Amino acid sequence: MPLPGLILIRFFAREAALDSPQTRVSPAASAAPAIASGTPAGLARAWLWLGVLALIGSGVLAVLLVLSRTPGIQDVFPLKDLFRAALVVHVDLSVAVWFMAFAAVIWCAVGGSGLASLGWSGVGLAALGTALMSVSPFFPGAEPVLNNYIPVLRQPLFFASLWIFAAGASLTVLRALITTWPRPFLGEPLRLGAFLGAVAAFLSLAAFFWSWAMVPWIEETHYYEVLFWGGGHTLQFQHALLMVVAWLWIAAQVGRPTMASLRAVSVLFLVAAVPLLAVPAIYLLVPAGSLPHMEFFAKLMLWGHPYMAPLILLGVLSLWGLRGVPADPAKSAFVASFTLFALGGVLGYMIQGVNVVIPAHYHGSTVGVTLAFMGLAYVLLPHLGFQPAAGRMALWQPYVYGFGQLVHVLGLAWSGGYGVQRKVAGAEQLLTTLPQKIGMGMMGLGGLIAIIGGLMFVVVCLKAMSRRTPG
């Protein structure tokens, strides 16, 4: 762990022992931000709707993906030709659109009411881009390029959808930088965490646009890999910061806010964001798209993420504090989120070669973020004027989704150990041994269970969001 991380753990321990009423987070005051009525709540509702609809589109495509790679079924339904195009849009909807949409939910919920026209323009453009993206695989010329982070279809409709969505996201991030500035700076840790997430988003978008302007055209697969390399790596810091925001918000709302001081939590967020300073430095020091550029960003992931360790530790302590708390959908999501995120982190250090251990790693990590956002969605529903998420389905949904993804990830990791390659389907997987078939069978079974869990989340949300509370 980097020295600053060790120093911050000691700082956190010291601050947690303080008993100052000016800095103590009490259950009454709570660390959960209050959501203002009017523009903040209205924009948050709109972005939540967009995120849920993106998950619906992603889930439909996920069914095709799982069937096309499951032994036995893949021979009955010849979906190989659609597999890659569906994979592209599935990834973009479930990662890029869903994560950005829920990030916007957080920014709108904790932010002020200013710049309303900018906010509504952003969500409108993002919704239009998402709609066009969702139907693009079914139009002619949907040739996939399976690059990392934001895979693309070589198709005018898809590129138009991507640019429109990027324009909406840019307006939203710009507004978030202005409206989420915490006051006092160290006195609102979750608002500070949301603001730092917006800083990461801004740097990521700037990296995308810079690379687009500066990277020369090369062979298509390599071009798009290089184009999204810097911005994609930077986005991981946005996701991680906002995931912890969601964890701490859930803990505070369920009834066990962290016992650390506001100042200590704020400093931990600042330390976790320190590696973002390297992003503009890399772009200024080496040409975008060059080998050193890509190597520096790879090292940024290796050396930068340990700065999150004290903040993750705070999340662990918050989760431990929830033991004994009555069952709650948000608590279920917190437990499942941490389990999958931790598994994804461990698998990241086990990657050797180009095989399905790589998607096992990022599925674990990204699903950990997704589950945190699902839990925070359950928390926010009544605060945004919707009915609360109630009933056994809401309580068990995170566990069903998390268990399915756990089996899915373990199946991929198992198969990767036996050499199954990534980004292939059908006979191209070359499943010749029993362990390979068992692993990919686990992948298929887990994927189907996860689809059921995702569908449960959509049903719970649609049920709650279809009925507004009076007032």
Automatic annotation (TrEMBL):
This is Putative cytochrome c oxidase, subunit I. Keywords: Membrane, Transmembrane, Transmembrane helix. The lineage of its organism: Bacteria, Pseudomonadati, Pseudomonadota, Betaproteobacteria, Candidatus Accumulibacter. InterPro entries: Cyt_c_oxase-like_su1_sf (IPR036927). The keyword Cell wall biogenesis/degradation does not apply. The keyword Membrane applies. It comes from Accumulibacter regalis. The chain crosses the membrane at residues 46-67, 87-110, 117-139, 159-178, 190-215, 235-252, 264-286, 306-322, 334-354, 366-386, 398-418, 438-462. It comes from the Bacteria.
